[in-house]
Amino acid sequence: MACDPSLARARQVWLEMAGVPMAFPADGGVDVAVSTGSRISPPGWIGIVALGDAAIITVPANSWVGTVREVLQGLPVEVLTNSDRLAQSCRSPRCWVRRAWLTSM
């Protein structure tokens, strides 16, 4: 997706709020990073921000990274910020949808 200036600026703001180096993947998809100081979700929660065809996800601890990647593998970005669709798509017994802070634009 070609990135317009407004989308690029919105992404930059959310990246700053993530509190760790990460990026909205240029070819779409998801970047997951550990950030105990993320400001995109309440402390201890998973934060998901989807803008355009890409998303960033912050998790509160290293132990969450693998689980989040496993659960989200193959899901379209547009599902990530729709709690009902995400819960339906989540087939893992370790599903964490109720502890995720979802944001999209």
Please provide a written account of the structure.
The chain is α/β, with parallel strands linked by helices and 105 residues long. Helices cover 30% and strands 22% of the residues. The protein contains 3 helices and 4 strands. A 4-stranded mixed β-sheet has the order 1-3-2-4. The chain is globular and about 35 Å long. The model has no long low-confidence stretch (mean pLDDT 84).
Features:
alpha/beta, 4 strands, 105 residues, 3 helices, single chain, 22% strand
State the distance separating the first and last CA atoms. 15 Å
Largest sheet, in brief, is: 4 strands, mixed
Given helix and strand content, the structural type is alpha/beta
| Biggest β-sheet: strands ordered side by side in the sheet | 1-3-2-4
Shape label: globular
What is the overall pLDDT average? 84
Unreliable parts: none
**Count of runs of 4 or more consecutive helical residues:** 3
- The Rg value, from CA coordinates, equals 13 Å
Overall helicity: 25-40%
Query: How many β-strand stretches?
Result: 4
- The ordered H/E elements are HEEEHHE
Strand content: 15-25%
Topology:
Layout: H1 5-18, E1 29-34, E2 46-51, E3 54-59, H2 62-72, H3 83-89, E4 100-104
Parallel strand pairs: 1-3, 2-4
Antiparallel strand pairs: 2-3
Summarize the structure.
It is built from three helices and four strands, in the order H-E-E-E-H-H-E. With 105 residues, it is an alpha/beta fold.
